[in-house]
Amino acid sequence: MNYRISLIVIMGVLMFSCSKNKEKVDKTTTSVIEIETKTYFNSEHIIEAEELLSITTKNNIKIVDFRKPETYNEDHIKGALNIWRTDIEDASYPYKGMMAKKEQIENLFSKLGIKNDDILIVYDDKGGCDAARLWWVLKNYDFESVKLLNGGVKAWGKAGGTMTREPVFVTASKFTLPANSSFSLWIGKDEVMKVLTSDKNDIILDTRDMDEFSGKRQKTGAYKGGRIPKSILIDWGEAIDYSGTQKFKSFTDLEQIYNRMGVSKNDLVITYCHSGVRSAHTNFVLTELLGYKNVKNYDGSWVEWSYFDELPFEQDSITILKK
């Protein structure tokens, strides 16, 4: 009798264990897409190509091709609107790349037929680098309905999405940004200068490549080669599978990369690059994917900083002018 009871108990435990193990297996067989996005701190502003394929015809979806017009004209996702860096730049400065004023964005979006309740899906062919600049600009003006297509053009093609050369006809709208702008991810040169004289555990993160960081390479638009003092270097491209899928790396991989900064997620991190584009991408990675709380992108970046002779800079080598 006792033997039978023990056997029943053992069988029950085994069945329960198998059920639990099956549940674990079921969870591990969840699609790679779900695993990739749900493990990030926030996946609200990322969309996978497979999901975009299923919602392209929805009325409140506006797809934005954030590439040069000549590239867009060669091929683009059907119905995609074209926006490029110069469309969201303020041309009133003596140097290029500064964030456009609110009215300029409103006029541009109205001309393109974008409405206040639209969701923008933005893509490029550079691992989200250019697309992230548009996200960053709109985030500062408190427009939140923006998603980056993870993997961009490459992911779209792999998922079975097609491209076209068909022109897109739009009906103008009346688009308005929220009344008050928080500029939550923005910082200017005066504020950066204050950080240089502070003894706090703040980080100035250069997201360019090593040649730019050292001063060996001076890109077009900059007035000298070099870097902002106290900068540390983490190339923006480390955050994506650049030579492969061009998608963001996993949460674990990103954590390992940016743990090299040696700060907590509450400390101030100022990102910059040549003109605030690559650093906007890093801003997206740190705030959205990893959950850093106090990240600011220096809008003018090296183009602006190098323009002013009175601002301090560091340089390790002789500069070679390159485009």
Quick overview of this protein structure:
Helices cover 36% and strands 14% of the residues.
Write structural notes for this entry.
By secondary structure, the protein is an alpha/beta fold. It folds into 2 domains: 38-164, Rhodanese-like domain (Oxidized Rhodanese, domain 1, 3-Layer(aba) Sandwich), CATH 3.40.250; 186-322, Oxidized Rhodanese, domain 1 (3-Layer(aba) Sandwich). The chain has 12 helices and 14 strands. It has a 5-stranded parallel beta sheet. It has a 5-stranded parallel beta sheet with strand order 8-13-12-9-11. A two-stranded antiparallel ribbon has the order 3-7. Helix 11 links the parallel strand 12 and strand 13 (295-298). Helix 6 packs across helix 11.
Q: How does the SSE layout of this entry go?
A:
Blueprint: H1 2-28, H2 32-38, E1 46-47, H3 49-55, E2 61-65, H4 69-74, E3 76-77, E4 81-82, H5 102-111, E5 119-123, H6 129-140, E6 146-149, H7 152-158, E7 163-164, E8 186-187, H8 189-196, E9 203-206, H9 210-214, E10 217-219, E11 231-233, H10 251-258, E12 269-272, H11 278-289, E13 295-298, H12 301-307, E14 320-322
Parallel strand pairs: 1-6, 2-4, 2-5, 5-6, 8-13, 9-11, 9-12, 10-14, 12-13
Antiparallel strand pairs: 3-7
Helix pairs in contact: 6-11
Q: Give helix % range.
A: 25-40%
- Indicate the mean pLDDT: 89
The CATH C-level name of the largest domain is Alpha Beta
Gross morphology: globular
Number of helices: 12
Helix/strand class? alpha/beta
CATH topology of the largest domain: Oxidized Rhodanese, domain 1
Report on the biggest sheet: 5 strands, parallel
Q: Flag low-confidence runs.
A: 1-35
Which percent band covers the strand fraction? 5-15%
Give the full name of the CATH homologous superfamily of the largest domain: Rhodanese-like domain
Distance between the termini: 87 Å
**Could you give the order of the helices and strands?**
HHEHEHEEHEHEHEEHEHEEHEHEHE
Please state how the strands of the largest beta sheet are arranged side by side.
1-6-5-2-4
Q: Specify Rg, calculated over alpha carbons.
A: 23 Å
Number of domains: 2
Question: Which CATH architecture of the largest domain would you pick?
Answer: 3-Layer(aba) Sandwich
Number of strands: 14
